[in-house]
Amino acid sequence: MGFTFKKQRHTVDEYVQGILNKDRVMLSKAITLVESQLHSDNDLAGAVIERILPYSGKSLRIGITGVPGAGKSTFIEAFGKYLSSQNKRIAVLTIDPSSQKTGGSILGDKTRMEELANDPNAFVRPSASGATLGGVHSKTRETMLLCEASGYDIIIIETVGVGQSETSVKGIVDFFLLLMLAGAGDELQGIKRGIMEMADAIVVNKADGDNIKRSKLAQKELQHALHMFPPNESGWYPSVLTCSAINHTGIKEIWELICEFEGMMKVKGFFKSNRQEQNLQWMHDTINYHLRNDFYSNQEVKSSLSFLEQQVETEKIPAIVAAKKLLSMFFNKRQLGE
Amino acid sequence: MGFTFKKQRHTVDEYVQGILNKDRVMLSKAITLVESQLHSDNDLAGAVIERILPYSGKSLRIGITGVPGAGKSTFIEAFGKYLSSQNKRIAVLTIDPSSQKTGGSILGDKTRMEELANDPNAFVRPSASGATLGGVHSKTRETMLLCEASGYDIIIIETVGVGQSETSVKGIVDFFLLLMLAGAGDELQGIKRGIMEMADAIVVNKADGDNIKRSKLAQKELQHALHMFPPNESGWYPSVLTCSAINHTGIKEIWELICEFEGMMKVKGFFKSNRQEQNLQWMHDTINYHLRNDFYSNQEVKSSLSFLEQQVETEKIPAIVAAKKLLSMFFNKRQLGE
C-alpha cells in the first residue's frame, strides 16, 4: 500500500511576511518552494519572487570558487565569522555540481560549515542545482533574492572551480574571488581554463607554518601572471592576497579589498550597470532555457536525437541537415497544436 | 523605374563539379550562395553542402587572432607564401566584425593580402558574417567545407581579437594561434579577456630591428604567464614563439610547431575526437540559432520586447516574469498555427 504525501505549502502572504520578518524557517521553506521541480509549485514561487523583489538587491553578492582542497569551506567559515563580528548578516549558498546527478545535495554539505551555520547572523544553505542547462543559474538567483529580502547584507555563493557553474555564478555576483594554493604548477591543473581571468581577486589560502614562504612566492607569481591580462572593463586590476583561514590571518585585508572594489564600482557607476546587464541577461537566459527545454523534451525530437547525433559525429550527414530535420519535426508538431 | 536583378544561380551539379575541379570562380560563387540571405537560396546551398561533405574535412584548420596592429595580414601573407613554397594549397577566410554592421565586408579587405591573393596556390576571401548570433559560425563553417572540397590543404581563419567571434572560431578550428606584440603591458589591453587561455600557441610578431630584444623578453614573460594556466585537455602546453613577418624570420618554426601539434593530436586521438565534438556542437548551435531566431522575430515578441527589457533593467518586474510573458506570447501564437 502506498501513501501520497502532499507537501505542505503556505500562502504567498505567509511566505512573504515570514521572509521580511527574518524568519529563517520560512526563508528555508520559500527556498524549497523555489527549487521545487513540481509544475504546480511554479506559479506560487513566481508570485513570491515577484512580491519580494522590491526588497531585494541591497546586498553585496560575492562568488567564491576554487579547486577541491583549496579550503573553501574553512575560508568561508572564517570569512563569514569575521563579517558576523562586524555585525553583518551573511547568507552562504553552496552549489555542488555532484548534486546535479542525484537531484539533491551532498550529504553533510551543510555541516561542513557547522560553526557558521550556528551563528545567528549567518544562514548556510546548499543550493540544489537542477540537471538542466540554465537550472543552476535560475534557482540560485532566486534563492539569492529571497535571502536579500530577508535582510542578509552579504550573499556568498560558493562553487567548485571545476565545472560549468562558474560562468553562471560570475553572471549573478558583484565580486568574484578565486581561492588557490601555493605551488601553483600542480594544484592549478584542476582549475578550468578561463576561470583565472574571471577573478576580481585571487586569494592564496593556507599561508601558514612552513607554507608562508611558498604562499608569498605564489602570490608574486600570480600577480605577475595577472598583469599579463587586460584589466576588467571597469578598470579594476585584480589583486592577489594571501590568508590562513585556520589561523584567521589575512581575512580582514580581503574584506577591505572587497570594500574598496565596491566603493570604486559604485562611484564609477559600474556597480549599477553591471546589475542591470545581469538582469537583462537573466531574462534572455530564461527565454533560452525554456525554448531549449521545450525543444529537447519534444517526443519526436527525443526519439530521433541520438541516432542523428551519431550520424553527425561520424560525418554521415552534415550537422546543419540534422539540425533542420529535428527543427522541422518540432515545429510541425507545434503547428498541429499538440 | 526600378529593375529587378535576378541573381544567376547554377545547378547543384555545376557547383559541385566546379568545386571538385578546383575552379576558383565556381568556388567563389558557391560561397556567395552559402552566404546569401535569400530564403530561396537556402535549399540550394544546403544541397551543395550535403554533396561536397564527403570531400571535406581533410585540411588542417588554423584560427589566427590578434589585436589591430599586431600585423595579422602581413603575418598571414608571409605564412601563406611559405606554405605555398612547400607546395601546400591555402585558403584564407577573414572575418571582419565591422562587416556585421554593413552586411558586407570592409572595402579593400582582400587587397590587404595582395601578394598571397595572386598566388595560384592560395585563395583569399573575406567571410561575410551575418549580424545574427550563430551567423558567423555557420557561414564560415560552410565556407571552410567548400574550400576543403576544392582541395585546399590548409584553411586559415583570421579574426580580430576584440570581438565575439573568437570563441566561435575556436569551435571550428584544429589549432588556434594568437598573434601579439612586444611591450605586453599596453598592447595587451585590446585583447578580450579569455582569449589568451584559448591559444594553442602565441607568436610575438615584429621581432625585428630594435625590437628583437623586447620581443624575446615578451616571449619569456608570456611563456611564464602561460605556465600558470592548466594545460589543454589533450596535455598540449601552448608555446610562445617570435617572428618577423616582414623579414620572413621565425615562420618556418611556427609551421613546425603546428605540425608537431597535429602529429601529437592525431596519435593521441584528440584530433578526431575534437572534430567530432565540433560537429555535434555545430548541430546544437544550429538548433539553438533557429529557435532563438524564430522567437525574437515573432511579431508579438518584437513589439513588447524593448518595453519589457526596460522594465527588467530598472527592476520594475523580475526578469523571470518578463521572460514568461514573452514565452507565452510566442507559444500561444504558434499553437494557433500562425
Automatic annotation (TrEMBL), chains A, B:
SMART domains to which the protein is assigned, alphabetical: AAA
GO cellular component entries: cytoplasm
InterPro entries to which the protein is assigned, alphabetical: AAA+_ATPase, GTPase_ArgK, P-loop_NTPase
EC number: 3.6.5.-
CDD domains documented for this protein: MMAA-like
Keyword Hydrolase: yes
Highest taxon above the source species: Bacteria
Major enzyme class: hydrolase
GO terms assigned for molecular function: GTP binding; GTPase activity
Limits of the AAA+ ATPase domain: 58-209
Family: Belongs to the SIMIBI class G3E GTPase family. ArgK/MeaB subfamily.
Protein name from the UniProt record: Methylmalonyl Co-A mutase-associated GTPase MeaB
Source organism: Paraflavisolibacter caeni
Gene: meaB
